[in-house]
Amino acid sequence: MDQPQLWVFAGPNGAGKSTIADHYVKDRIPVVNPDNIARDLPRTPDGRLDELEAGKRALVERKGRLAARENFAIETTMSGNSELKLMRDASAAGFKVNLVYVGIPNAAASAARVSTRVQAGGHDVPLAETDRRYARTMGNLPEAMRIADRSFVLDNSGERHRLLLTRENDRTRFEARSLPAWAVAAIPADMRRDPQLVRADHANLRVVETTIARNLPNNPGEASALAMSAKLAIQKGAIDGKPAPTVAIGRQAERVPDGAEKVSVMNGSRLHESYRDGQWTVQTSDPQGMLPRGVYRLDKATPVKPETDRRYDGAVLHVGKAGVYQLHGDTVLRHDRSRFQQVPSIGEAAKIEYSNGRATLANRAPQSPAPPGPGKPPERKGPDRER
After folding, report:
1. Secondary structure, 3-state, the chain
2. What does the pLDDT look like over 163-199, one tens digit per residue?
3. Last residue of a domain, which of 192, 220, 242?
4. Residue 245 confidence (pLDDT)
5. CATH number at residue 178
């Protein structure tokens, strides 16, 4: 008898899981999808889909098909623990477990796609829920890849799905030449590349650090900056599938100007650093949250032209006295803080819209004006005042 197979199509809300599942397994094997089950159930008293009952029925159907050793697929955000348990149970029962994960850049992209789906007549997901599910599904991805016999990771940030990575029997079989930030942040390095290559990169970094320290014994600030550049260069080589590049030492290295700023996101922390007198100094430190790992130079950010009526989606890296710095795709943008009525928070998946030179947050309700103080009449707006 052929080995039964479980196919898990997973990813954030709006990532395009259904499109992939329909292409590969529709009409071939049963697909257990709570969303489809919910559409066939009576609505709740407030008119919403009965997601709770649909979830219960999906669990019962999964267990039944698992016990019957049938080939079947599930579609899930993988934001809970039940899907990981199902994968473990299927593996223990002798199933071949296949994971197809579809990712998108951030929670803001997830919410935007859900909104587009609703406009086309599809089901809605509350904004707070898309944020929670995005964080949980990205956190569950490494464990799901460890359980699966085969993993296929795709990116749906653009107009078409793009295959990023395939793994089989704990070995990476294919890796794209470049990976988006969300994949780098979510998938550990030893799962993106062959472990032997990872160990070689670590050895290269140790050699580079030793060489830097020997050549710059009296300049610890520049040595530290060069060591960080070396680490990032080797990591980029790993992501692009290229050999680690040679790192310039001494006069050929980039000279960092006094007053430069950067945000370093790694090891669970977000560090805001400034450069003074030849060394980087940490100004503030807070939790990483959902910010993607990386080092982002704020002084090299691209200024946003306020006269352009458009929207910018992405995580807020830093909020300074004069600027709001946002990661938009792979670009760091600088928004003029004075153009905001409501200033976004660090780590927020912000949707910043410009209209008539003003910046507003499309993902927030408008801020009501403050009531007048005691004994102070309300401000009257003349015809030339902004309404």
Report:
1. CCCCEEEEEECCCCCCHHHHHHHHCCCCCCEECHHHHHHCCCCCCCCCCCHHHHHHHHHHHHHHHHHCCCCEEEEECCCCCHHHHHHHHHHHCCCEEEEEEEECCCHHHHHHHHHHHHHCCCCCCCHHHHHHHHHHHHHHHHHHHHHCCEEEEEECCCCCCEEEEEEECCEEEEECCCCCHHHHHHCCHHHHCCHHHHHHHHHHHHHHHHHHHHHCCCCHHHHHHHHHHHHHHHHHHHHHCCCCCCCCCHHHCCCCCCCCEEEEEECCEEEEEEEECCEEEEEEEEECCCCCCEEEECCCCEECCCCCCCEEEEEEEEECCCEEEEEECCEEEEEEHHHECCCCCCCCEEEEEEECCEEEECCCCCCCCCCCCCCCCCCCCCCCCCC
2. 999 999 888 888 887 888 899 889 988 888 654 554 5
3. 192
4. 36
5. 3.40.50.300
